[in-house]
Amino acid sequence: ALRVPVPCACSGGVRRATSARYVSRPGDTLASIAARVYAGLTAPDWIRDSNGIPDADADVAVDAGTALHVPLHCACFGGVDNGVPAVYLTYVVARGDTVPAIAKRYRTTATDVMSVNDMATADVAAGDIIVLPLPACTSSFPTFTSDHGLAVANGTYAVTADRCVQCSCGPANLE
């Protein structure tokens, strides 16, 4: 799966990234942009509010070629989970998903997923948005480099302006 990092800002307990831009295509509606283009990581009313669009039906076509600012649901936590460096992935639950299966797929634990999301039970439904804490490595690049402080999820790569960085780490083994 492709993971695209976006900066995240928290305001009033609401987590929304503010960097996504989208140019509408013929037939696009706010609802279709939210559901198909951004896979449920945004909502039609968020797009409407962010762009100063007057209240309108989310299923009414947007003029083709309209440049839209699209706020995305994201995770803003500290860079640590249970004392281990971590990055956080915002995940839209698919039909048939379970918390244990999602946790296994992303190399985390169901307990950590439930804790980060303040879940009393492991019950999830298709379309729910949850946050996954992924074990990570942090870079040891000097502070004057653009890659300083980079966190990369365990087992993944990050392509930066200066380097390609692969992470393979655990609590006792940070590379």
Automatic annotation (TrEMBL):
- Offer one Pfam family short name for this entry: LysM
> Gene3D superfamilies from the xrefs?
LysM domain
| Entries under SUPFAM superfamilies matching the protein | LysM domain
Q: Which residues form the signal peptide?
A: none
Where do the LysM domain residues begin and end? Answer: 89-132
Protein name (database record): LysM domain-containing protein
